[in-house]
Amino acid sequence: MSKKILVHSASNEEAIAQWKATAERLEKEWKEIEAQCAQFEAHIRNELQQEIKEIHRLTLLYKEQKKAKKLKRLEQKKRGKNYKEPQGIQPLSEKNEKPLPTENPDLKKLYKETIRHVHPDTQAQDEESQEAAHALTLELMKLYKASDFQRMLQFHEYILSGKGLPAQIRTEVSTYTGVGYWQQKIKDLEEAIAAEKQRFSYGILTSYPDPMTFIPELREQLKARIQVLKKRTRT
């Protein structure tokens, strides 16, 4: 093996190690934010469970009362001389009716059969097997969304035959298990972290000097909501 190939291989492994380390750091951050938010929200629900239950009860009562009023008005209309039963939605004429898009049942069958054989949950627990299975799963999902029947058939034939993937497909999939795989994982984790930071609880945790002082504020808001619902339901 030439020195150039060895240097390229070492450089690629170093890059993968760096991307992997970044992904592990982001995953740790995501899990920490998720745990903090879940714990804080559970504490809020525990502290305000009476108010939450009362709002739930009054909301259901309000919906039931609205439904009863609607039925009462309908009965009054039925007693009128000019009342006519609604005919429902009329079908479109054949001239204007557009056929609904249909899903290729053969493609769906191939996808389901193939995905069962490559899904990460069916693989050994070593990291290399998990990464390869995840990469194949991503590729199959992409082909299914693109309705690429021929490529799906190739995957199905080789995977279920036990022959392994042909060189062309194996080369494409290997990009997911290398730097490309970790770059995609980092992107997914960054999006997950951004979503967690949109939670109201995260906003309270990061903006209040003492997040627990938010609970009395929220209790007052819930009490005001209860009063509004009591007026609407006349309770």
TrEMBL record:
Keyword line: Coiled coil
Coiled coil: 9-43
Biased composition regions of type Basic residues, renumbered to the chain: 71-81
Ranges of compositional bias, category Basic and acidic residues: 94-104
Region described as Disordered: 71-104
Protein name according to UniProt: Molecular chaperone DnaJ
Organism for this UniProt entry: Shiella aurantiaca
